[in-house]
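User: Hey, my collaborator sent me this sequence without any context and asked if I could get a structure. I don't really work with proteins. Can you help?
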Amino acid sequence: MHIRFKFLVIVLVLSIISYIPPLYAQKKKQTKTQLQSQQKKIERNIKYTKRLLSETKNKKRTSLNQLSLIQKQVKDRKNLINSYSNEIKLIDNQIRFDKENIKQLQAELITLKKEYANLIYQSYKSRSNYDQWMFLFASKDFYQAMRRMRYLKEYNAYRRQKAQAIEQTQLELKQDIESLEKQKNERLGLLISKESETQELEKDRLQKRSIINNLQQKEKDLRGKLQKQQKEWNKLNKEIQKIIEKEINPKGNRPPLSPAEVQLSKDFISNIGKLPWPTKRGNITSHFGKHNHPQLHITINNKGVDFSCEKGATISAVFDGEVVKVLQLPRYKAVLIKHGEYFTVYNKLQQVFVTEGEMVKTNQSLGVVWTDSESGESVLHFELLKQINYQNPEKWLIRR
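Assistant: No problem. I've predicted the 3D structure and written it out in structure-token form, which is a compact way to encode the shape of the chain:
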């Protein structure tokens, strides 16, 4: 009875030991994959932001958008370096975990080998004394004798099998540690190579300070330009509101929406937080609402969001709708699209591909972004309204 109980305990312990590593291996693989995916995304963002900054580097005029881009660049570089550091910490933890596993398995292996050697020795000694036969002949009946015979065979086979299994597991863990050590060295080497990123980060910080100093020196002029831009936008917004009011209230009595427009509004609402961006690539350089600039003594009142994108970028519709108006402004164009009781505005376009009254689909190209010849910047101004009430577009667009 004591031998059988000991046998069951060993089976249970070894089953638990052999069961833990696969679960941990699966978990660590997912975490590492997430980190590497994050790193690739940040590197793509840095590359894209550098491209946008390169389009403005030869221009004399410094702008708030340029400052926003360099601030984002600094933030992305910090995140990239932190991500690689976190992955190295993760690998270190994995190595420590596997080393502890090896120690446990080595101890189990030593114990089993001792027990197995003792069993072989006892079996050898008992050959002349017929102990095993006596164990069988001491059975109360034939069925008990058969059970004892099967138990002896299974017990011996079990020890050989488990000793081989632990040896194999130990070998696999050693290989795993070698692999992890190799990965650690690779990541350390990569982190060392990322010292160039740290140097670039310092350059970005210096450029950021230079831009801030430049803007602060021209703060009065900048404030004047912002006021001029705000007047242009206010004029445009008033015109857009008049158009929208005419759409929703053409004869002084607001008519009910048609069944198709009601359904379109419902579909639009159901996609809150899931609408595609109006640009395939882009960085948000000015957010919705009224806020003070953190470095400059100026107030920004944005009715939408601004997307900095590459020169010649194509602008697309964020949802199905009808083109209500194509507005021609002094330097660029704007498109107003109706989605039931919701409206979207795509401002600062160089070219427009759609016409008034045209029905458009989600992601359909509307035109090409306008590029400022003085600053070299290409910035889309995007607004979203429920009737004449401005909404925060970032709450409606999918997160990137």
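In plain terms: Residues 1-27 have pLDDT under 50 and may be disordered. You can pass these tokens on to your collaborator as they are.
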